[in-house]
Amino acid sequence: MPIHIRATAADFAPTVLVPGDPNRARFIAEHVFDPGARLVNDERGALGFTGTYRGVPLSVQASGMGCASASIYYSELAGLGVRRLVRVGTVGGLAPGLRMGDLVVAVSATPDDGMVLQLTDGEAHAPTATFALVEQAVSLARAQGLRHHVGPIVSSALFYDPRVGIMRRWQQRGHLAVEMESAALYTIGAMHGIETLCVATVSDLITEAGSERIDDATLRSAVEQMVRLGCDVAIG
Ligand code: HPA
User: Fold this and answer.
1) 76-99 tens-digit pLDDT
2) Backbone φ and ψ of 98, nearest 5°
3) In angstroms, how far is the first alpha carbon of the chain from the final one?
């Protein structure tokens, strides 16, 4: 049994949603999964649940924030034999045209965190989503008429980043948004032959003038839509 997920392989479905936030994990289990999901992990409050969604077995496990925390959960889930991990998160929007509550489908995650190079022992690696999952997320978003953006994001080690102009330079190099986990997700997935994708809701808009935060009601409804799309991709 792993150290941070106090559960066995039999406790998890082959596909696991991996939000950062334990409260989001609970929300997904209680309001998005079919009724009857059961708690499979509560070690350190990193809640994990297993149930079904549209009749298909599905789990959710909170990862915490940042590649350092998330990599522990992704690695332990890999050790438990899971085959697909779908991150359902939030991102800070960088690209012009992004609005609060928009959906971002992350094709790749530039690692601005030492973790990826440590995982590959210094060898270059481009953390990349599984194309079939990208394709499915995009076609669902299109079919549902959701405002969505598809492209690269940055996984930063820092939420409060003191480097002047870094957000602008990331944006100028084509990144849609910044968050803190997907580079580890895509790298650990590649190392273990696990399918991975991050879909995320824009919860902040970052410009030269500063950062603006989404209001709670808009966040709640946009996250619920994004999570349902994540579940549909997960079971697809
Ligand atoms: N920065 C990093 N990660 C984030 C942000 C942000 O502004 N918003 C949501 N996740």
Assistant:
1) 999 999 999 999 999 999 999 999
2) -75, 140
3) 29
Q: Which of 102, 113, 204, 232 is catalytic?
A: 204
Closest-CA residue, ligand 1 atom 2, reads 179
CB 181 within 8 A of CB 65: yes
Residue 216 annotated as catalytic: no
What Cα–Cα distance (Å) separates residue 221 from each residue in 101, 122, 224, 226, 227? 8, 41, 5, 9, 10
16-74 pLDDT, tens digit each: 999 999 999 999 999 999 999 999 999 999 999 999 999 999 999 999 999 999 999 99
Distances (CA, A) of 172 to 3, 10, 105, 188, 206: 41, 46, 19, 28, 13
pTM of the model: 0.98
Q: How far is the CA of 180 from the centre of ligand 1 (A)?
A: 7
Determine the distance separating the centroid of ligand 1 and the alpha carbon of 95, expressed in angstroms: 13
Token pair belonging to 43: 């070690």
Residue nearest to atom 5 of ligand 1 (CA): 92
* 3-class SS of residue 10: helix
Q: Is the pLDDT of residue 1 over 90?
A: yes
- Atom number of ligand 1 nearest to Cα 90: 9
Whether residue 200 contacts residue 194, with contact meaning beta carbons closer than 8 Å, is answered with no
Positive or negative: CA dihedral 78, 83, 89, 93: positive
Amino acid 181 reads E
| 66 pocket-lining for ligand 1 (C-beta < 6 Å) | no
Whether 208 shows a pLDDT value over 90: the answer reads no
